[in-house]
Protein: Acyltransferase 3 domain-containing protein
Organism: Planctobacterium marinum
Amino acid sequence: MNNAYYIPHIHAFRGLAIIAIVAAHAWSFPIFWTGTLDSAELTALFHIMETLFHGSTLYFAIISGVLFSKVLVTKTWPAFFKGKLLNVLMPYIVLTLLITLLNWQFFPVNKPEDWPLLAQFNLNFLSNLYYGQAMIHFWYIPVLLVLFVATPLLWRIQRKYLWVSVIIALMPLVVSRSPFPDFLKIQSLVYFLGAYQLGMLMGEYYAAVQRWVARYLAPITIITLFCSLLIYLLFHWQYQAQGFYSLIQTAIYLQKTGFCLLLMHYLANKEPILPSWLMTLGTYSFSIYFLHVLVMWPYILSLSAVLTEYRRAWVIFSIGLLNLLLAVLVSVAVASLVKRFTGKYSRILIGS
């Protein structure tokens, strides 16, 4: 791909990021859509998967920040916002509309007495759009749109008051994202704004960051592994957050930042030999994000009897692993098919 805005190892990291995001749902959905944590081994499996993959949306926020200050900053603001309008907002609107229709007991409105039904549908659609409620994972898109709107201000602050940008990037250590199911709260915006700002800082000083990671590779690895152990133990101890602060979310922010630094450093060193399948996932990452739960839903539903009766950890692990593979592969296949038939317009339909 010959594109001034294309950086192969960051593109590859986007592919790894979407695997982690899908994996965050691949095991939790089969567990909780068909039952509860009703055994010690199942609880341990869930805690391991949460330790590895919970909060992986942070990767997308950091990547967005890196790409802005490393490559997109050369664009004018109108061009920047036009790109986000076409490539993020438009597919979000299209897919929210389609999913709202799928979930709506809707009949043709051709009589005056049916008009209130149409009005209710419109309200439901607008509510889904505003709150990101069309599907369980769509909450991130309204957050992402806020990050994009805030970009000019964040960039101006970073250029004039670097110390303020550093404080913003550190805010997620003391202000945590809100827990399920109330994802859209001010504290979540602060949390992801910090991650986005961190990415912007990394992007502006990217070469220096890479040298720093190479120099302190061992300490960064140790801190990342320590945070992973802490996350697991906090889940195991059934830690409960207090107010707007959660020690688990602090540890996750540090862990995901550590993985970002380590993986981007590793992929940069392997750039000449990055596998094509990983680059393909990077290309279709946004489409996979939008579509993967639609793939998981019928798969889990078809196995609901098995999941209800055989709640052994190895059974659910196997089902979850296949869930992950199917969700990624089918999403890529659907996105590729849409792209073949719609060409460049596929971006405004499914994001890739």
Q: What stands out?
A: Residues 8-350 form one domain. The chain has one domain: 8-350.
